[in-house]
Amino acid sequence: AKWKRTRWPLPKAINVSAYEKFAHLEELEKIHDDWQYLKVPIVHIHGTKDFLAPISNIKFSEDHIPEHLLETIVLEDVNHFLPWSHFDLVKQTVLKGLE
Question: What is the pTM of this model?
């Protein structure tokens, strides 16, 4: 999905997610100095078996998001598709955040 010659036969969803994945580092660098200005609570839910986003992202969140705003939830043996495999947890977390 990275190169034009190999991108065309892939489903649009794969191409979109690949574009996002390859843009992550550059986008994080753009906001490097802005994490301190966050004012809203953030819940970072991450599975230990995520093969697309490394579990080290939890450490990144802990290092960059003010402690009083961050809640982390690490799910053992859960992969990248936790919004579907753990729908109730994600739903309740979102609803709690909206209160």
Answer: 0.79
